Amino acid sequence: MRFYVMTFGCQMNASDSEVVSGLLAGAGYDKAPHVEDADVVIVLTCSVRESAESRVHGRLGALKALKARRPGMIIGVGGCMPQREGGAREIMGRHKHVDLVFGTHNLHDVARLVEEARAGRTVEVLEDQERPAFRNPLRQEDLLAWVPIMHGCDNYCSYCIVPYVRGRPRSRPSEVIEAEVRSLVAGGCREITLLGQNVNAYGHDLPGGEGFSRLLGRLDAIEGLWRIRYTTSHPRDFDLDMVKAVAASRAVCEHFHLPVQSGSDRVLTLMNRGYTRERYLDLAAAIRERIPGASITTDIIVGFPGETQEDFEDTLDLVKRVGFDSAFTFMFSPRSGTPAATMEGQVPLETRKSRLSRLIEMQKAITLERNLALVGKKVEVLVEGPSKKEPERLQGRTRTGRYVHFLGPPSWKGSLVGVVITRAGLWSLDGERSEKQP
Ligand code: SAH
Ligand code: SF4
Ligand code: F3S
Question: What is the pTM of this model?
């Protein structure tokens, strides 16, 4: 029997898909190379925006034909969509070929649930509860790894569904995280990405728990671990001490992903973000001053209810002032059950669209400018393997998170190479290795 996991949404879901894979492998299933070869297909879903849900529905629709050709195939749908109010019913109603629906809080029962689904359609969505401490994820890759440090979120940004579908914050004990990272490194891992909805709140829920900076210090001391990334930071809880901690560390990368969401104080208040435009600009300035060459990236929502043209111009102005290296930009999408969905002053779709395209145009120009500034400079690249588009070239990332392509043998996978940038585009850089190495 073979399984295949399809993942939508954020890196936490990607990490959860490794947990699901580990559980199914532990129950005796083999991993199928393609979905067409699978006897069990698990789809891990995202509910953060309407468009994310539409993509899931589209993919589930496509699985219907596949299942018709492979009778006995089990299709399971898990994660954030079933966990949200009414989500499980909607999936069962719309997709009669789905055999199993489960939420984010019973993901660890997936093997049992799949067996139950063989006897008949099964739905199990539990309320918030502890995750079992033991995890045995099946990772695809030795070199890079995602490591969740906390689950859940209680910030309740007024637009966001995540606190409702992921439950209250629960941090994993730092010794447990450290042990996991040590064993990863012993297996050849050189770069980790620590995951949480708000990593700067790490440890606040543990009795006597150490905070995020202490955790970084602990992991920074692990020999053989070259790079530590983390996502996501919250500008309310991210402070100057964090900037100092990163500046003082060896492995923590000089990349700050700090979602700003809006450049207008009025909108930030409506969003319940808990910081001002000025605080954000101060943080960005502190990063630029103390860590020259660092990259700062962000998430922005346009067309939040009540956002005026002036508010939007404030966002553009902030984007220009900070000079983000890149930004994920979204149109506000009302999520049922969140306060913003029923706020007054919903912005018409046309306005949201045109604001989004203006923002994207501006950010593209800034991204290109910042990338072009790297031409002629030497950067350190961790080689991840052959480039997907041009297999004769290698692909890797800088410490600041940019993709770089250059010529070199496949055997360099997993090594750090000095590369001089020769060309800059919007999405990646081209370069040449700077000396005979490794
Ligand atoms: N925990 C992370 C991000 C979670 S979701 C954080 O706090 O930054 C990722 C991004 O999706 C958010 O940063 C936000 O920009 C966007 N997003 C969340 N809910 C949204 C909604 N209802 N409409 C549009 N974008 C949304
Ligand atoms: Fe959503 Fe805000 Fe929590 Fe991020 S911090 S997951 S945007 S509620
Ligand atoms: Fe989506 Fe759930 Fe992540 S809603 S963004 S997959 S936490």
Answer: 0.96
